[in-house]
Amino acid sequence: MSVVDAEAVLRGQRIIPVYTPGSETEAVAVARALLQGGIGAIEVTLRTPVAIDAIAAIARDVPGMIVGAGTVLDVAQLHQAHRAGARFAVSPGCSDELLREAREAAIAYLPGVATSSEVMKAFGAGYRLLKVFPAQAINALALIAAWSGPFAQARFCPTGGIDAAHAAQYLAQPNVACLGGSWLTPKALIERGDWAQIEALARAASAL
Ligand SMILES: O=C(O)C(=O)C[C@H](O)[C@H](O)COP(=O)(O)O
């Protein structure tokens, strides 16, 4: 089994909102608002008990949205998310088990990297699109530029502390395929059910 091409699965989506779900209905409303605003992929973090059901609900009720799982820390979570309908999975770091199982399960997987050694490990295992986390904390803009030399074939998805103000700088790097961030799904807007404002944030981000 060869590694699934995650960049192909994400089909040109350049901004991936990171969203921690409060309920299934909320998740569907958030995904619909983002899609309406021109964002076609969402990373649902596995940080709340409803997360797997939220992924299943988006997969079922929001057909145009490419739904993925974030905060995938172990193999059991990877399989749960896959069964629920996640089209891709993302981790803040990487482990040998996850690199092996994502390939075996044929799920698009973005391992997380923060050092050159981790890039070598994930890239060596066949993964081309790598999440760089926590991006702002490790000055990922400079790291990603430096990695374009030794890791010329690698593509990156920086995430962590990125907002609308930083996004354009990252997207201008030739080896940045996409980036992730929670600025499109602010808790205050979600709690108020302000889907129009989430749609507006998505529209602004998709114009970047
Ligand atoms: O859950 C994961 O898999 C992670 O690696 C962490 C997330 O990518 C960050 O929590 C993004 O959130 P912001 O930094 O608020 O944009």
Automatic annotation (TrEMBL):
<dbReference type="InterPro" id="IPR031337">
    <property type="entry name" value="KDPG/KHG_AS_1"/>
</dbReference>
<keyword id="KW-0119">Carbohydrate metabolism</keyword>
<comment type="subunit">
    <text>Homotrimer.</text>
</comment>
<dbReference type="InterPro" id="IPR013785">
    <property type="entry name" value="Aldolase_TIM"/>
</dbReference>
<dbReference type="GO" id="GO:0008675">
    <property type="term" value="F:2-dehydro-3-deoxy-phosphogluconate aldolase activity"/>
</dbReference>
<dbReference type="Pfam" id="PF01081">
    <property type="entry name" value="Aldolase"/>
</dbReference>
<dbReference type="InterPro" id="IPR000887">
    <property type="entry name" value="Aldlse_KDPG_KHG"/>
</dbReference>
<dbReference type="GO" id="GO:0106009">
    <property type="term" value="F:(4S)-4-hydroxy-2-oxoglutarate aldolase activity"/>
</dbReference>
<protein>
    <recommendedName>
        <fullName>2-dehydro-3-deoxy-phosphogluconate aldolase</fullName>
        <ecNumber>4.1.2.14</ecNumber>
    </recommendedName>
</protein>
<comment type="similarity">
    <text>Belongs to the KHG/KDPG aldolase family.</text>
</comment>
<keyword id="KW-0456">Lyase</keyword>
<comment type="pathway">
    <text>Carbohydrate acid metabolism; 2-dehydro-3-deoxy-D-gluconate degradation; D-glyceraldehyde 3-phosphate and pyruvate from 2-dehydro-3-deoxy-D-gluconate: step 2/2.</text>
</comment>
